[in-house]
Design a protein that fits this description.
The complex is a heterodimer of chains A (115) and B (114).
Chain A: E1 3-6, E2 10-14, E3 19-21, E4 23-26, E5 32-38, E6 44-50, E7 56-58, E8 64-68, E9 73-78, E10 87-94, E11 104-105, E12 109-114
Chain B: E1 5-7, E2 10-13, E3 19-24, E4 31-37, E5 44-50, E6 53-57, E7 64-68, E8 74-78, E9 87-94, E10 104-105, E11 109-113
Parallel strand pairs in B: 2-11
Antiparallel strand pairs in B: 1-3, 3-8, 4-5, 4-9, 5-6, 7-8, 9-10, 9-11
The chains are: A mainly beta (115), B mainly beta (114).
């Protein structure tokens, strides 16, 4: 079985500053990893995913994440945030080729951007 | 391309009542998954429907039930509502049971149980 831990429930950051949202996972098998974003009063949207290959994954809106197998981490980063990045971010994990029923979501990190 | 749509967007019920939530999947998708998102938490998997058959269920009691129709739209039914059922209910569609993990979410139905 897989599990995912998002270490920070809230991350405040100033506009144009860099940000890192932390995610650690636990699994006895290889994994697929995801970051989803949820803007206020909306559903979730896929930001990026790691299935295999390069450990540095680039997503939409200038976000990227790095898969670190030895540290079982998949931290999300952005070099310069904008007010529009204010949202809740969810890390998720699943086993390869399993159905959507096996995607496990973390508890979320609320990113708040200060002008 | 039509995205995932859910109805109603908001509703208020009282304890013991029943509720039906509806979801239209994205064009070309044959799989619908339902999630419950309580305030301040991540989505919790309820169940998934693939080609009109239930294809996996999370840790939810039988009073949570569902259907998928030939056009791949879906319903979530909850009987005997409890206060703890208050949450945002999210529907997500995907192709082929979502093996690559890319789910397309609707904006959700926010249920309040009084």
């Amino acid at each position: 079985a897989q599990s995912v831990t998002q270490l920070d429930s809230q991350v405040p950051v100033f506009e144009e500053a860099p940000v890192e949202l932390r995610c650690n996972y636990s699994s006895s098998v290889s994994v697929y990893l995801f970051w989803y974003v949820q803007y206020p009063n909306q559903g979730l949207q896929l930001l990026l995913k790691y299935l295999s290959g390069s450990t540095l994954v680039k997503g939409i809106n200038g976000f990227e994440a790095e898969f670190n197998k030895s540290q079982t981490s998949f931290h999300l980063r952005k070099p310069s945030v904008h007010i529009s990045d204010t949202a809740e971010y969810f890390c998720a994990v699943s086993a390869p080729y399993s159905s959507a029923s096996k995607i496990i979501f973390g508890s979320g990190t609320r990113l708040s951007i200060r002008p | 391309e039509t995205g995932v749509t859910q109805s109603p967007t908001h509703l208020i019920k009282t304890r013991g009542q029943q509720v039906t939530l509806r979801c239209s999947s994205q064009s070309g998708h044959n799989t619908v998954s339902w999630y419950q998102q309580a305030l301040g938490q991540g989505p919790q998997f309820i169940f998934q429907y693939y080609r009109e058959e239930e294809n996996g269920r999370g840790n939810f009691p039988p009073r949570f039930s569902g259907l998928q129709f030939p056009n791949y739209s879906s319903e979530l039914n909850v009987n005997a509502l409890e206060l703890d059922d208050s949450a945002l209910y999210l529907c997500a569609s995907s192709s082929d049971r979502g093996h690559t993990g890319e789910l397309f979410f609707g904006e959700g139905s926010r249920l309040t149980v009084l």
